[in-house]
Structures are given as C-alpha cells and as structure tokens.
Design a protein that fits this description.
With 300 residues, this protein is α/β, with parallel strands linked by helices. The chain is built from 13 helices and 8 strands. Helices cover 55% and strands 13% of the residues. The protein starts with 8 loop residues before the first strand and ends with a helix.
Length: 300
C-alpha cells in the first residue's frame, strides 16, 4: 500500500505522458505480459513507479523499430540498454521478399493518389514495425520516392500528390526518430537546410539514421539562417553539422553559404548532401547519398 502523496509514483496517464507509450498500450501489455505492474495507494488507486518511465521509453524504442513487445518487455535494463546502443535496428525479425516490398510501395502510391492521410500513416506504421528503421528507409522510402518522381514526370501524379507524400512521410519520420534517441547518446549532430531551402524530407531520413547510430540529431530543419546554425552548433557542442541542399538550390548561393558557415563553426566538422552541383570545397565534406551518410555516421 502506498501513500497518496508519494512522489515516487505516477498515474497511468503520467506514465503514458512520460514514456510516450499510449495508455491503451500500457494496459494491453500489462494484461498480456504482466508488465508494467502497478501498486495500489491507500485509496485503492493504481500507481506506477517513476523508474518505469525510463524502462518503457527503451522498450518503446525497440518496438518502434520492429522488435515484438513480448520480446522487449522481458529484457532487463542492461539488455535493453545494450541492444539500443548496439544499433541492431535492421535485424530481419519479419523478413519480406521482393514481392512484399513492391506490394507495400504500390499501396503507398495508391494512398498518395487518394490523399488518404489516416490510411497512409497507418500503412507506414505497419511497415516500419515489420522491417525496422533502416530497411524502412532504404528498401521502401527511397524506392517509393523515386517512383513518385517518375510518375510526376510522366504526369501520372501531380505536384500536389508529391507534396502530400512528402509531408506525410516527414511527419511520420519525425514522430519515429525522436523516441530512438538514447539517453546515453555519444555525440550530437546539427541537421539543417540553408536559408530559403524548404525541402527537409532528406534531413528527416538522415535523423532516423543518426539516431540509430546513437547520435542525437539537433534538428533545425528547413529555411535555417546561417547564424542560427552556428549558435546551435556552439551551444550544443556538436560533433558535426550536416546541411541538406535540394537539387533545385542555386549552386553559387549554396557555395557562399557553406564557406561562410565553415568560417563561423570554428573547427566543427561541416558536411553537405543532396546536391551534386557543388564542386569540392576545402575542409567541407560531401555526402553523396543516404547510404554514404549511414556509413559516415559510423565514423563520425
């Protein structure tokens, strides 16, 4: 029996708010797996220990990238932490064949054509849970975006459809990479678009990959003034700054922006990606693709 005023316990609503796990999910896990288990106050109300918030965050991070709740809830704290830090988010827990991937992409395209936000988001969530974060990016999202581009060029899809798909994906990815950030992250990384550049979907995918590598993204997003990037990099003591440049960025403007930014960063690593029209720049790294960014994160 616990005292009503105990500050070491929270309600199920507080547990949900602190961990990011929905109340109904908590109740379902408790019923199925016996976790989390509440105690009772003198009044009879159910309360959960505060320390469960941290544990639930870790479990949610694993579930979000494809691990089954029945597996994750039975790990002890050390096992959870080791698995999160290991970056093993691409394990083939639910392997799909080529036909399955094509079906998933076709489904995404149909939902883009009908602009069905709820069903599209639900499909994204289901596919993310089946195959994990890294495969979701490389084997579904990138091929899907290429196909959207092809259909736009052939007039099978409109600019409105392309914008719709981009916005839904950006919103979904933003909701997924943040819970992946470990409390014991090793490094920080600023991700931003230059001022005037509004295309940040590539940065959202980069944020997912950085989080997998235990790097905390300081996500500034689109249309970020140069001085704001410098301030964030300095205050947060980041390991590097990565600038996303869209293919329609003016090369001369981007070159000037990158050179001035490098001068203001005072020794912090600077890299950019997304545009192939920028020449080699002294002490500024070029990341040609998300695959290269994934590898770059391993060595930052």
């Amino acid at each position: 029996m616990k005292n009503e005023n105990s500050q070491k316990h929270v309600s199920i609503g507080g547990l949900s708010a602190g961990s990011g796990v929905p109340v109904e999910t908590i109740r379902n896990w408790e019923l199925r797996y016996g976790f989390p288990s509440p105690s009772r106050l003198d009044s009879g109300h159910r309360r959960y220990e505060m320390e469960l918030i941290s544990r639930l965050k870790k479990i949610k991070a694993l579930v979000d990238v494809g691990y089954k709740p029945s597996f994750a809830v039975n790990l002890d704290d050390m096992e959870l932490e080791n698995l999160l830090l290991s970056g093993r988010y691409s394990a083939d827990l639910n392997p799909l064949d080529e036909n399955d991937f094509q079906k998933a992409i076709s489904r995404w395209l149909t939902l883009t054509e009908t602009m069905n936000v709820a069903e599209f988001t639900r499909a994204l969530s289901q596919d993310w849970s089946r195959i994990g974060a890294r495969r979701f990016i490389f084997e579904l999202t990138l091929p899907f975006l290429r196909e959207v581009g092809n259909r736009w060029e052939s007039s099978a899809l409109s600019v409105a459809h392309e914008h719709f798909a981009s916005e839904v994906l950006q919103s979904f990815l933003a909701s997924r990479w943040r819970p992946l950030i470990s409390t014991n992250h090793n490094k920080k990384l600023v991700l931003a678009n230059q001022e005037g550049d509004l295309h940040s979907l590539g940065l959202q995918m980069a944020a997912v990959l950085a989080s997998i590598h235990n790097i905390e993204p300081i996500f500034l997003g689109p249309n970020t003034p140069l001085q704001d990037i410098i301030i964030a990099a300095t205050e947060q003591k980041v390991s590097a700054v990565v600038i996303g440049l869209s293919s329609v960025s003016n090369p001369e403007t981007s070159i000037s922006f990158l050179k001035e930014l490098k001068q203001g960063l005072l020794g912090v690593r600077l890299a950019f990606g997304g545009s192939k029209y920028i020449p080699t720049l002294s002490n500024i790294e070029y990341i040609a693709s998300l695959e290269d960014f994934d590898d770059w994160c391993r060595h930052i």
